[in-house]
User: Which sequence fits this backbone?
């Protein structure tokens, strides 16, 4: 089968062989990317029309016990100025978010021990009490089953935990010994079992990534069938062991967004900040490749720069309201509309 035939097959069957996925990513060219893009956009429009969902992102802490080799907030990075938002600060971000029309808040952060089950449950309950129509998404890394269960009971609706790579050997090249691929995947399965809307994802162009590891990522998405999938380019951070690596490309990220949309037409797929960082029109191009979610930053201005996973991150100097207006305009310019909606997956 050639690339066009594999795209046709994906559109029809929503699955492909590992070797076909690997073939696609090794043989990407302008024509195939455009062919996949058109089909992906058509699939997205059939499910979501021209609506784009917005999630208000609150970066609650950059303190992390982990040491992922690619990440700017890894514990070994002594140059990182650490911060942790207080409960009143987080609640104030949600307040501002609701005022701006957001119906989903994403609480993201490093694996910071301060956020125990007790502290987080209390926080999630308070957010849900104050903003009853809103969805709460957590993106706080690996926790125990009991913890995920408690947080679900407290009212959390969704959980984002990128699988990072579906290849064990690759996972081990990106993470220190104490982190395990098996546990990462187990966490994702647990989240799904507990009834969360679960999201996985990976970095495009991560060090040591190959067409074979990418093929496994696509297979994993096909089989795990997540509700959400966060993919964005890897971007080096100067104070990490991968400082000298090159960033993932716009072309490959957009192509993979299209392929993922074809595998799962109803998936919630963000055009990430990282994509907007590698190209001034990256987020627009992500939407035009099949993404349907944007995540404007609601974090207080004082901490934006400190949550630096990679260098050059955009939106660190803009107020929440500015980011919202900016994204609305950007979406409007390409014929889409941001809706004030919880933005649940259409099943
Ligand atoms: N601690 C939580 C976790 O591990 O899921 C959430 C925060 S973590 C910083 C969020 C995501 O940022 C990671 O899953 C990773 O894919 C992404 N990330 C980290 N370093 C990055 C880099 N240098 N370039 C692009 N994305 C990066
Ligand atoms: Fe933040 Fe454009 S989205 S300034």
Assistant:
């Amino acid at each position: 089968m050639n690339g066009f035939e594999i795209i046709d097959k994906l559109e029809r069957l929503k699955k492909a062989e590992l070797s076909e996925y690997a073939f696609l990513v090794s043989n990407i060219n302008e024509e195939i990317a455009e062919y996949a893009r058109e089909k992906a956009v058509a699939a997205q429009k059939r499910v979501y029309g021209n609506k784009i969902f917005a999630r208000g992102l609150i970066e609650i802490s950059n303190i992390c016990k982990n040491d992922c080799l690619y990440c700017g907030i890894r514990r070994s990075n002594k140059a990182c100025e650490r911060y942790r938002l207080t409960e009143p600060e987080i609640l104030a971000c949600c307040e501002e978010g609701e005022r701006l029309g957001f119906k989903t808040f994403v609480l993201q952060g490093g694996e910071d021990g301060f956020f125990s089950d007790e502290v987080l449950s209390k926080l999630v309950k308070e957010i849900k009490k104050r903003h009853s129509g809103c969805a709460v998404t957590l993106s706080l890394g690996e926790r125990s089953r009991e913890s995920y269960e408690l947080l679900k009971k407290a009212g959390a609706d969704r959980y984002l935990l990128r699988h990072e790579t579906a290849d064990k050997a690759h996972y081990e090249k990106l993470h220190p010994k104490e982190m395990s691929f098996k546990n990462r995947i187990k966490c994702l399965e647990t989240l799904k079992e507990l009834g969360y809307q679960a999201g996985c994802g990976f970095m495009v162009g991560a060090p040591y990534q190959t067409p074979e590891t990418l093929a496994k990522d696509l297979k994993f998405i096909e089989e795990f069938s997540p509700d959400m999938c966060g993919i964005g380019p890897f971007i080096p951070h100067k104070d990490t062991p991968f400082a000298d690596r090159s960033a993932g490309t716009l072309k490959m990220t957009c192509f993979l967004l299209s392929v993922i949309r074809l595998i799962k037409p109803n998936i919630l797929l963000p055009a990430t900040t990282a994509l907007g960082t590698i190209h001034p029109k990256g987020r627009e191009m992500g939407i035009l490749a099949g993404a349907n979610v944007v995540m404007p930053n609601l974090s207080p201005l004082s901490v934006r720069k400190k949550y630096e996973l990679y260098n050059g991150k955009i939106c660190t100097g803009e107020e929440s309201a500015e980011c919202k207006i900016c994204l609305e305009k950007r979406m409007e310019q390409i014929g889409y509309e941001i809706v004030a909606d919880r933005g649940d997956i259409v099943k």
